[in-house]
Amino acid sequence: MKKHLALTLLAALAAPALAEPAGYTIDGNHTFPAFEVDHLGFSTQRGRFNKTSGRIVLDLAARQGTVDVTIDAASIDMGFAKWNENMRGENYFNTAAHPAIHFKSERLVFDKDTPVAAEGNITLLGVTRPLSLALTRFRCAPHPLNKRETCGADITAQLKRSDFGMTKYIPSVGDDIRLVIAVEAFRE
Fold first, then answer.
1. Quick check: 57 and 24 in contact, CB under 8 A?
2. Average per-residue pLDDT for the chain
3. Yes or no: is domain 19-187 CATH 3.40.50.880?
4. What one-character-per-residue DSSP string does 148-165 give?
5. Count of other CB atoms within 10 angstroms of residue 175
6. How many other CB atoms are there within 10 angstroms of residue 82's CB atom?
């Protein structure tokens, strides 16, 4: 009887160490996918998307996770209304026909206990291609204001817009796109 009680107590104490996968909801107030593109060789122009939603599942103990993120393509923000409207049009994001940009990853890459990449697929303009997101500054901790567990990271990636059929004005407007994304997500 004492042996059974001891094993039960030991199992109860060890249970928190056996981490379960945890779900995190993207914080749309602190997640802004941005991009950079060469403009006529004179400058690097930047834009961002103001509406992002999605979910991340992390199992840090098992070094596994998934990412499923949707970007509202019409929320593009280039700094002024006329340019935003042009970018929503058929020559670029064609938001009437393709209102969302979607990234889905079933594989996180870890360096020891820290995720350093998310490998998956991005769908843009109805075309799906592989994309690897590099993660830096990954951190999970209680949020200082609302006390909820929050995970965040800085993300970078490269893609070619021509791979998705967005070819207008290449090479004057660059084909190579650099993605720079700040992401934060609250534990569910």
1. yes
2. 91
3. no
4. -EEEEEEEEEEEEGGGGT
5. 16
6. 8
Reported as a single tens digit per residue, the pLDDT across 6-19 is 433 333 333 344 46
Task: Tell me which of 33 and 3 has the higher pLDDT.
Answer: 33
Domain coordinates in residue numbering, the chain? 19-187
Rounded to whole angstroms, the Cα distance separating 147 from 186 reads 10
Contact 142, 149 (CB under 8 A): yes
* Both structure tokens of 84: 């935003």
For the chain, give the longest Cα–Cα distance: 80
- The single-letter code of the amino acid at 185 is A
Model confidence, pTM: 0.87
Residue appearing with tokens 């996770």: 65
Q: Which residues pair with 130 in a beta bridge?
A: 121
